[in-house]
Structure formats: C-alpha cells, structure tokens
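Shipment paperwork, digital attachment
Item: protein structure file
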Amino acid sequence: MAQQDDSWSSCKRPAEVVRLRRKRARSVAESPGPSGSSPASGLSSATPSLHSQSTSRGKRRNPFLTWDNTVSRPKKVLVEDCENVCTFIKLMSAEKTSGDRRSGPPGDSSAEKSLSEDNPLLETEEQHTDNLLFKNPLTITPVSIAPVSCAEYPADWSLKTRVIFTSPASLSWTGQPKAQEEALGLSNSCRAKFTMLPHNLQEPRSWSDVRSAFQQSLVYWQHPSLPWLSLFPRINAEKNFSGKNMPWTQDEAVHESLVKEWSVSLSSLYSLLKVGLCPYFYVCSYQFTVLFKAAGLAGSDCITALISPTTRGLREAMKAEGVEFSLPLLKERRRISEQHKSIQKGEEEMENENKDFLQVDEDYQNWDEEDDGYSQGEDDSLSWLKEIGIQDKLRQPECINIQLQKEAPTLSLDHKPESAVCVEGSNSFNLINFLINWKSVVAAAGSQTGLPPTLLAPTAFRGATMNVLKGRSVNVKNLVDCTYQNISSLELTGPILPSSLHAITTLLQTAQKGNFSAALYTHTPTAVMNIETYRKRCGKAVGDLTHCGLPPASINHLQQPSTLGKATLTHITMNNYNYTWKIG
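Attachment content:
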C-alpha cells in the first residue's frame, strides 16, 4: 500500500505538466547563458521556448482528422514568424556544423570565423533555404520556350482533305461571291493572271479584287470528273463508292473508252510537266499515290516522282518494265544502321569481345535489306540430308520456308512509309508508260472496279474538268479569359493542293492583317511526300517555271528543299505577319 501511494503521488495531472513545461521554458529563456558559451549555443537553447509558445498558442487537435486529409492540407505559415523561422533554420545549421567540428573552444569567436571559412557552402545553403521558403512557387516554374517565328512556313507536299481557318477579324468576305467576281476569278485562273493587292486592306468585303483572287485560289483541275462520285480520296474509300451507279462495269465499251481517255490525259500532263507548263500533278490510285514534280521544285534539278505506299508486287513489276527507282527512307535507315554498326565494331575492338557477336549483329542489321537472295544456296541448308542418304525420299518442305525467309524483309516494307519509291530523270517517262500499260493500276474487284486513278493538277490539261474547293464561313464564340470573344472561321474541303494552300494563306495574310490560324488535316498516304531523295541537293535547282501557271510567291515557296521529312504540317499560326507551325 505504501508503494502504491508513492506511485500515485508521483503522477501529475496534464494541466500541471503543461504548467511545469511553461515554467521551465520561461526560466531557461530568462536566465543568462554561461560565461564561456557561444552565442549560437545560447540562441539554440532559446529555441525550445519558441516552440513551446507556438504550441501553447495553437488550437486543440481535431479528432476527426485522418492521414488522407492531413497530408493534402497545406501548412499555414505566419508572416510575423518568418524572421523567427529563418533564424531557427540558420541556428540549426550552425549547431549541426559546430557539433561535427570540435576543434575550437565553445566561446572562441575565431571558431565561428573558421567554421564559415572551412565550410563555404553554408552561406549558399542558407540563401537557398531562404529562397525556397519565401519565394512564390509560381515564379519557380520553368519558363516555356516560345516557338521560332518566320516570315514563311516550310513547303508541305502532302494532300490536305480539310483546312479550318480561324481569325479574330471577320471572314465573311469569303462567302458566296457575286457572279462577276466568280467569273473574273475563274478567267484569271485559266489565263494565269494574278492581281497585285495592297499590303493593308481596311475592309476586304468592299474589295472586289480580293473576292475574285480568293475564288481563283480555290480552283483545281481533275480527271475523270463524275458528278455522282467523290473521286478523292481513293485509298480506303470503299464506302464512298458502294451502292453507286457504275455503268462501265456493265458495258465493256464504256470501260475501254474511260481508260483510253485517262491515258490521253496522263500523257498530256507529263508533256506539260516536261516543258515547265505544269509544276506538279498527282495520280491517286486505289492502292497508291504518285506525285510528279517538275525540274526546279523541292531542290531537284530533274523530274522527280514519288510513289507511296508500294508493295512487293508493284516494285517487282516496275523492275520488270525497266523502271529504275530507289527507296530513300530505306537507304537512310541503312546509312544509320551502318554508322551504328561501325560504332559497335569500334567498341567491340576496344573491349576485345567475342567476334561471333559481331557476326550476329551484322545479320540483324542486314535483315531489312531488300535483296533478291542470299549468298548461300538451298542445297547448303539441306546438305545434312545427303549425308544420311534420304534426300530423295523427302519432299523437302524446308525449301518453302527458306523462300519465305528470303521474302520476309521485302514483304515487311509493304504499306509502310519506308516503302516509298523515288523515280528520277528519264525513268519518269518509263514510269508513265508503266502506269498506262499496267493492268493492276485499275481495280479488278471491289467497289472501285474498272475506275481509273484520279488525276489532280493546279493547271489545265487535256480532258480535265475545272473544280472549286467547297468553303463554308461561320462566326463562332470562343471562351477566352472567362469572356466570350467573336471568332470567324472558314472551312475548306476537297483535295487541297500545296499551291492552293500557299495562295490562300498569302491572301489571308493581307486580308486578315497578319493574324489568323489554320488546322490542317492530311491525307495519310501522302504524308511521306515530304521526304528528300537520297541524292543531296545544294540550294535551289535550275528550272524555268515562270510560265507554269502559279504566282511567283508560290513558285519561290515550292522551290525550297523539303525540310519536313516524314512529318507534315498540322497547324499554322500567323501573328503580326510571322508564322509559327506544328508538325505531326
């Protein structure tokens, strides 16, 4: 019982414990430090009073708080205690450093000096801590790098199916033109006449020349042109042709006449291209697209044709007809693999590793090459059958597997960007003859049976029909900074050629006072048309394109070497007469 009474007497109530802690903290704060103590130690002994005072003034802990809502809640820092917190952090750093270094006496002031000299990072650490505590977090975030603006955007040789222009200024002047304005625009397109417009237009709607120039920029030429069929795009567009009336599938004479007229139109286009009267044209088949460019465009000094995508059957047929071609993307990939192989060889020589690994790496790097066969024959792989004497008794199914292994690299390129084929110079004429005589250029089955490819060009040619891009202008409201602003938009649909896109943007630059943006939708099979050929060109190529039917600004734009590679333009923005763009 005596021991139990002693234990109860030693216990204290919580209120008394708090009172004793306050009294002890107050006595320690009021009592002077020892004579030999350093200021740092004296201040460090005063820090518990700061902690106890802040704890005593704090509110009672909320019993309903959990770990989830406690972690996400930001801590509150009193502005009036900022100096105390900063002093506390400095003292803690000094105390920690002084505890690690016991070389000097506690009361020696030279010890503090030597401490700061021996540890020069202490001051930097304190300044960094102050910056993190009292700097606004929004000012610490990294600054976004602004895109580079230029006076001209790069040339894009891919076909666009739709373009949406938006501008803070009104685009209502692009609406339905008057009969006289439309007639003038179509006439100027046929005669290749271009009106010089002033740099600044106060009211484009009142300018008849602006509306005529806009109609002129929407013109393109197409063959064949069937009003009840949409002949672009042709790849993966079976739904557009299903259920339509196709009389050439029922009458052989109609089909022969249609194919004959198409051959004449293709020959006419190539003749115009050869003499520089047509800058470029497209051949859109149900399985591939061909872009013919005249000499002097895209940094080339000869006629160039790009075919994408291709298959092994198409490439074999071109070889059989004597059409020489190259695969630019595959050559680029081989060049990169050779560089990688040379670097790997150097590393292996330095490390003196096994030579078998080098042989395996060479076989892997050469796996994607398009060769007609391997150096080893089929008999070598079946030599073990001769040794046991049963070669004649087996059907040798391995021959089929070996043939499939040989064809695997070439088949892996089909319908991919790497299968793009480039034909240059006089071989382009052989390509025209190949397209005219090759029966597979016309679909033999499916919804596009018997329909020849679509020919698209910016200028007139034999058998072509003049078409105009479909446009629709509306005014919309966009939410900007919690306020609605009126924005005018213009949507164009159809096969938008590179020269048409440049002519329209040049016109909007003048009419919209250098402020507009455009969202571009690319026909995917033509996205690879921006690649460079394997032969490097230097500067602009030589070619007379003054009478090709395009404005001089568009000619200069298309003469620049392509810099997009396999990418295409997805967005174009003009702000204060400077272009920025995005690629994808």
